[in-house]
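User: Can you model how uracil sits in this protein?
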Amino acid sequence: MRAVDVIIKKRGGEPLTDAEISFFIEGFNRGEIPDYQAAAFAMAVFFKGMEPAETVSLTQAIVRSGHQLDLRDIAPVVADKHSTGGVGDKTTMVVAPLVAATGLPVGKMSGRGLGYFGGTVDKLETIPGFRAALSEEEFRQALAKVGLVVAGQSQDLAPADGKLYALRDVTGTVESLPLIASSIMSKKIAAGTNCIVLDVKYGKGAFMKNLEDATALAHAMVEIGHGVGRKVRAVLSSMEQPLGLAVGNSLEVKEAVETLQGRGPGDLVELALILGSQLLEMSGRSLNLTDARRKLEETLKSGAAFEKFKAFIAQQGGDISYLDDLSRFPLAAHREEFRSNRAGYIKSMDAETIGIAAYTLGAGRKVKTDAIDPAVGLILRKKVGDKVEVGDSLLEIHAQSQSQADSIKESLWQAYTFSDTPVQAPPLVDTII
Ligand code: URA
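Assistant: Here's the modeled complex, given as structure tokens:
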């Protein structure tokens, strides 16, 4: 078999066999198939797509490129939750301890954020001492001891994905459905969890800008999961406006803690309950979604979810005194309310523009090696559907200087549209697949 023939076959729109895909990914991973051929392969897939069976083969080949965790000796069912990323998305920090506190172990590997989405690991690392770089043994120990672990993505798992993604990133081939689906699912599958809920976001502030593309991605990922014998469901959730109120790394940790203490914003609590219920039902821990939701609501109310979060942070070296006293997190030097210059109802709030504003303050990174500023960001005071008067605060800017705050104001104005008549907030969740 020759790599060029596999590329030509895909370029012609023909489905590849499992053997051809394995040959290509194995050769690429060993360095025998050069980057330029792998980039051409990615471009052929970009234009011609893949059938579901091919996408499953590609995912499995990527999984086989590295080490695979087997967690079955720790627990027969280990849950995982993945989000395709969104502005203000701190859901993992709420769902994971909430589900784990009901007795269903949660083991998660999480990427760092690039661009205006902060990753969960970046957020958790604003807690002094918290360590996400765990060895496989540490990952397993934390899972066995606490029933909850969140680690950075291990380089040993699915290494072909990292290599291929680096090429896609610079060859205009990131936005390919089978490539995205296999990339995400290969990492989930290699991490050894067998009950996975995917939060697939759609809208202005999401990777997938419209519901149609997000739905297709969700179907592709669920099909891959089923194809390799994992329980997987996808929840399509809106990212037309940021989730919750806080956007920015330590600001989001504080909001997650408040949510675990029963003081969270309605949309964040609701999404956490929806995602968590799916996991409890899929795992067989609850008979149905109503039961699951009731159990999660009780767990949140009892304080058990917050206790689980503290145990998990402590296990990974974090200073939990910050969680008991949120005022210990350093605040940005300059804080200022951003006030409305008109009255009416908020009609829309562009999550992408809000995300970019927080990123401009230093909450995100352009390249992997950039440092993030944990303290900066935005706290929304109003959301879509809320009534505002002239002079009401729309949000609070947390910046390191007046000039930094001033630099985002023009774009913040562009983020809002208003209506003179009442407006319905957009639905939080569209469908569950
Ligand atoms: N996230 C991933 O992990 N892979 C992709 O291809 C896109 C988003």
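A couple of observations from the model: The pocket of uracil is lined by residues 165, 174, 179-180, 183-184 (CB under 6 Å). DSSP finds 17 helices and 13 strands in the chain.
User: Helpful, thanks.
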